[in-house]
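[job 4471] stage=fold_predict status=RUNNING
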Amino acid sequence: MRAKGQLEQRLLVLVTLGLVAFGLVMVFSATSASAALGAGDPMTFLVKQGAYAMVGLVLLALSSRFDYHRLRLFAPVLLVGALTLCIAVLVVAPPINGAHRWFLLGPISLQPSELAKLAVCVWACSYLARRPAPRTMAELMKPLGLVVGLFAVLVLLEPDLGTTIALCVMVAGILLVAGVPMRLFLLAGSFAVAFGAAAIYMEPYRRARFLSFLDPWQDPQGAGELYAINVDPAH
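[job 4471] inference complete, writing structure tokens
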């Protein structure tokens, strides 16, 4: 059993490293040409993201020595703190390209929705570890569905549909591992998909990006990039 757990940990580390490498390649592919055309260094964004990646890997190595079971003690504090920051960023954070997503602290930017993903993950795991998996929609909604729905709405108001989707997919994975009945899982998933479709339809730039994704040859210039507002706050 212990050997199986170690194998799973190694697989998770390999997957994480693969995603980091893939992300760096995508950053360079998306930014090198525009940086060069602007008489800048095409490596600027790659170096910046590479530095963040190295910091993340160091933190990964340090956190691997921490007993993750102890995280359940911090679950309520993390959840309340993330919720407070998600509300505060909508109220007091300056708008950047029309979005209220970041607190700017000098050269550093803090995005509360990223903390929200961690807080919801830890809290959901802690909650489900102490109780049987929900068997009905009512059990799923109270309190798990309400908490996730609240965070999803707050992040969507920033607006940040991508992080909202990531949050919901993460919780879906937790529910699946927890043993939620497939019928209930599919029913809740259908509601989440309907909510996401409505969020896409209500915003013109989201519709443009989605349609461009479905038919990229319809707009060779890339309507998705034209209407995107997910921009680095430092630029």
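[job 4471] summary: Residues 224-235 have pLDDT under 50 and may be disordered.
[job 4471] exit 0
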